[in-house]
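Q: Sequence in, structure out?
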Amino acid sequence: MKTSTIVVASVGTIITGFLAYAVYFDHKRRTDTSFRKALKKENRKQEKAAKEEAEATGAKQKKEIKAVVDRACAEGFPTDVEEKEQYFMTEVARGETLCADGDPIEAGLCFYKALKVYPQPRDLISIYDKTVPRHVLDILAEMMAADPSVISMTPGSESGNVE
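A: Exactly. Output:
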């Protein structure tokens, strides 16, 4: 026999076996109640594990955000007007670069630092709403919640809440 005939026969056998298994699995899934229950139970178990993992990741991220904000506050911020302007421009540029590179917490930190030195934080927040990706903006919101001084330094904020 030719090699090509053997290859074609082997491939045909493998494909036929795969299709037969697919038909068998589908038939078993539709008719066997215990099999269906086992599949549903496995799906629930996987969903529960995914939910627990997401909650653990969220808690870890919140701790990391709090630590990053505390570190940034400990480092301090410039007080001179020209230094603030240069610092603001540097941090915004770094934040945009980090957004593109895929490091959302560090990008959020850069935008947070820029927000701390900006004279009109509410105006900057509305600009961020339009330009910063949503996941980074959510991280920035958590950073602002971790440091209430950002909200309190906003001029004209009677209630202390960011809109």
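Residues 154-163 have pLDDT under 50 and may be disordered.
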